[in-house]
Design goal:
By secondary structure, the protein is α+β, with helices and mostly antiparallel strands. The chain has one domain (2-96): Orthogonal Bundle (Arc Repressor Mutant, subunit A). It is built from four helices and three strands. Strands 1-3-2 form a three-stranded antiparallel sheet. Strand 2 (57-64) and strand 3 (67-74) form a beta hairpin. Helix 2 (25-34) packs across helix 3. The protein is globular and about 50 Å long. The structure holds zinc ion. Residues 13, 17, 31, 35 line the site of zinc ion.
């Protein structure tokens, strides 16, 4: 149950950062750790791939220092989903954190 909630929060974080600039898995993992989420690559990478497959992110592979990295940005659909999530988060915060 908690894991499901957190996965939702994590997706919102990813969309948020991918709407501000490009993100890659390693950076996103550090960022999420900073926010207190211990997420394994085995959870994060499939989540990124899923968001890409569903059209919320677009990925681009680049070779950085001899290693292939996939960078992601939010698509129009991703940005719209983020806007919707924002409204819902505001609502939820007002109710739950009252
Ligand atoms: Zn963040």
């Amino acid at each position: 149950m908690l894991r499901e909630f957190f996965l939702g929060f994590i997706k919102v974080h990813i969309l948020y950062h991918a709407s501000k600039g490009r993100v890659c898995g390693v950076e996103m993992m550090e960022e999420l750790r900073r926010h207190g989420y211990e997420i394994s690559p085995g959870t994060l990478y499939p989540t990124l791939h899923l968001l890409e497959r569903e059209g919320y992110l677009e990925g681009e592979t680049q070779v950085v220092a001899g290693r292939r990295r996939r960078y992601y940005r939010a698509t129009g659909k991703g940005r719209r989903a983020l806007e919707e999530a924002r409204a819902k988060i505001r609502e939820l915060v007002e109710e739950v954190l009252e």
